[in-house]
Amino acid sequence: MGHNRVVGNRSRAPLALLPVPVRQAISLLALALNTAACGTVLLLFAVVKLVVPVNAVRRRIDPLLNGLARWWIANNGTWIALVQDVDWRVTGADGLRRDDWYLVESNHQSWVDIFVLQKVLSPRIPMLKFFLKHQLIWVPFAGLAWWALDFPFMRRYSREYLAAHPEKRRADLERIRKSCRKFSLVPTAVMNFLEGTRFTVPKHAGEPSPFRHLLPPKAGGIALALDAMGERFHSLLDVTLFYPGRVPSFADLLGGRVQQVVVVIRERPIPADLLGCDYASDPEFRLRVQSWVQELWSEKDRLLEELASETAPPPVA
Question: Which of 203, 226, 261, 284 has the most CB atoms around its CB within 10 Å?
């Protein structure tokens, strides 16, 4: 892979020899206990933040909330390491800082991606804040936790609906901007899966895509983040996730069947002409962002093709 060559780091799992159903049960129990313990404390702070919504309180509570989220991530890393031997192949992670602001994007293939991104990036950069569908705010307990952690919630309207109700686009943009501006108080990494959904072969076949390994990217979310706080971002972290052999499912992660993970991180400057403009009302800016995203995606597609040809899949457990 030339300058993109990755270095393997295989963890040794004490429970790797147990049957898969047993490992799945252990993992699920560990995840549930971890979520219950961290979530209970987090929700207590979330209620305080909800009742007293002032910046002085936010500045004290937000680091505690982020610390609890990092504790949850670290505990997940522990049970993952206990149940499976994973050959971690990560490149580009050196030199990242936890006291700076980053815009992060990645391809998306599986729910495993979220655990991988958290494990690889959490020790190196600020807490990842994912763009979430607005409906998820109503998920019991989790919705309040995501709100307390300032995850941006996005509504998705059809073109027909927006044509009939153009004011909805403006209202949603302002709400996202307000959410992103909160990140100026605490170093943050704003995360966006530009494809908007997980890549699958049926999805890829069902919509025209110029890319072999990716769905067409959606530039709206990343443009909103640039509009709201572009001057704050130190750089863009362009992350490419690849699983040799086959893409693992969440059940595979629980059962210790994730054999190898390749993570390529490319830190890139954010073009100055993409800062401080309105994606919804400025057609020229919209074209610049879309062109930039398409270029990123073309390079990512070439990298995935290179990884597929050069990274030999590990033996199936």
Answer: 226
Quick one: tokens of 207?
A: 């919509």
CA–CA gap between residue 260 and residue 248 (Å, rounded): 10
State how far the alpha carbon of 214 is from the alpha carbons of 106, 246, 298, 299, 312, in Å: 11, 15, 9, 11, 20
CA distances, 99 to each of 43, 69, 123, 201, 215 (Å): 25, 16, 11, 39, 33
CA distances from 13 to 25, 248, 258, 313 (A): 16, 18, 12, 19
C-alpha distances in angstroms, 76 versus 13, 38, 63, 73, 197?
14, 11, 20, 5, 23
Q: Quick: pLDDT tens for 79-118.
A: 999 998 889 999 999 999 998 999 999 999 999 999 999 9
- pLDDT, one tens digit per residue, over 132-161 is 777 777 877 778 788 888 887 776 665 666
How buried is 133 (Cβ within 10 angstroms: 0-12 exposed, 13-18 middle, 19+ buried)?
exposed
Name the β-bridge partners of 89. 8, 262
Q: Which domains does the chain show, CATH number per domain?
A: 89-310 (3.40.1130)
Which range is least confidently modeled, 166-180, 207-221, 256-270? 166-180
What are the C-alpha distances in Å from 73 to residues 11, 22, 143, 186, 200? 17, 22, 18, 19, 26
Share of the chain above pLDDT 70, in %: 85
